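Protocol step 4 of 6: structure prediction from sequence.
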Amino acid sequence: QVQLVESGGGLVQAGGSLRLSCAASGRTFSSYAMGWFRQAPGKEREFVAAISWSGLNTHFADSVKGRFTIARDNAKNTLYLQMNSLKPEDTAVYYCAARRKGLVFVYTLSDDYNDWGQGTQVTVSS
C-alpha cells in the first residue's frame, strides 16, 4: 500500500496552466503504475492520464491530449500532471492513484487502482 497526497490545485483563468503534484510514501514508488483521474460535480470520476512504473509509457484521455502531460520522478516519489490551455470544463477534483505494476504498462480504469489520494480542487474560470 502507498499513501498519496495531491497538491497544486487552485483557481486559474481559461487558457492558463497549473501543475499538480502527488507525493507518495514508501520506498517502492517505482514499483507502481500511476494515474490521474478527475471528478466534476454531478459527474462520475473519469480517467485523465496514466504513466507506467518506469515513466516510459503514458496515455491520455482524448479530452486532454495535447494539453496535459504526465511525468514522474521516482527518486523523489512524486507524480506530476502539467495542465496547459485549461478550459472551464477541466474544473474538477483531481485524484492521483497507484497500483502495483502488472502485465500492462498503463491502466485507464479506476477499478484498476488500489490506492487513492484525497484529491485537489482545480477551478478554471471563463
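Step 5 (inspection) to follow. The first strand starts at residue 4 and ends at 7.
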